Structure to design on (317 residues):
């Protein structure tokens, strides 16, 4: 649903000169808190990991910020690259205190993938078989049936590779290398239901499912991604906002990833805000809810083809 079959292209086809990138970085408006955006927009599309929680705890100020948005009658849709369904994510977020009264809907990359497998409208998905070599954290394998697939551990019997999630202790790219090489030898297609190459987990930045898919693409394999920044997930999110009576121009997307959250928002025609304390925090040299200094920000933005309209230290009011 909009993803490229041999990996993901990042940014524009024509590279932006460094001088223009520095000028764009200067156009990003630095904000003290989400309250400044709440005064300008009627709805928020919020990334989950790195914005609301880190996989272990709600991030400082996040619950208060959500409560204040709801008190202001602002619509909130959580837009996640999780391979799990929105319903499953909603249940999982309860352990962080992120309860359904704090948002209107959850839309995930898993929802996008499920829709694609169910419809099989495009040539890529119509050609897929049902037996999947599954890469997923313990406990997520049971969800494969929701995609209409049957899990197998034998590459020789598989019709495709399906990357759903990762276990930081056992799903590094190196851990998966042998299986990926064997799958590539059979020219199996790979479907990635979570394109995040890095994620914030328990306070650490680690490799995500997207890194495994990128390695397979580097081996010459055929890859289809579902989730941000591709358009399919935004079609679902914008439909959810339309049901809530909010137009795209009255919506701002908030995330911590330039290539996923900010690029995806731009592709969907939405305003965007970057959280500095997420996956880019080491590159930006920030800790403890601080903003990068102007020189560090300008230098960092020379490496990106996309520029957020707004920059915040964290998702705080």
């Amino acid at each position: 649903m909009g993803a490229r079959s041999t990996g993901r292209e990042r940014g524009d086809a024509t590279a932006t000169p460094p001088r223009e990138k520095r000028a764009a970085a200067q156009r990003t408006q630095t904000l003290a808190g989400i309250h400044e955006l709440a005064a300008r927009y009627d709805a928020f599309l919020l990334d989950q990991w790195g914005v609301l929680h880190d996989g272990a705890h709600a991030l400082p100020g996040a619950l208060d910020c959500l409560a204040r948005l709801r008190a202001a009658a602002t619509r909130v849709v959580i837009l996640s690259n999780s391979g799990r369904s929105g319903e499953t994510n909603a249940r999982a977020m309860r352990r962080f205190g992120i309860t359904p009264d704090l948002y209107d809907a959850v839309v995930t990359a898993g929802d996008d993938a499920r829709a694609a497998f169910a419809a099989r409208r495009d040539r890529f998905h119509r050609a897929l078989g049902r037996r999947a070599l599954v890469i997923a954290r313990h406990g997520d394998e049971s969800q494969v049936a929701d995609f209409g697939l049957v899990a197998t551990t034998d590459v020789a019997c598989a019709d495709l590779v399906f990357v759903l999630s990762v276990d930081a202790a056992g799903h590094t790219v190196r851990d998966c290398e042998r299986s990926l090489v064997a799958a590539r030898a059979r020219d199996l297609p790979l479907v990635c239901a979570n394109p995040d190459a890095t994620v914030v987990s328990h306070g650490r930045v680690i490799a995500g499912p997207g890194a495994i898919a990128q390695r397979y693409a580097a081996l010459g394999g055929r890859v289809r991604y579902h989730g941000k920044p591709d358009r399919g997930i935004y079609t679902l999110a914008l439909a959810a906002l339309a049901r809530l009576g909010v137009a795209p121009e009255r919506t701002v997307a908030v995330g911590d990833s330039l290539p996923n959250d900010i690029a995806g928002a731009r592709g969907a025609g939405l305003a965007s805000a970057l959280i500095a304390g997420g996956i880019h925090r080491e590159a930006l040299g920030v800790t403890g809810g601080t903003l990068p200094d102007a020189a560090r920000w300008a230098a960092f933005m020379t490496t990106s083809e996309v520029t957020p309209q707004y920059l915040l230290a964290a998702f705080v009011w």
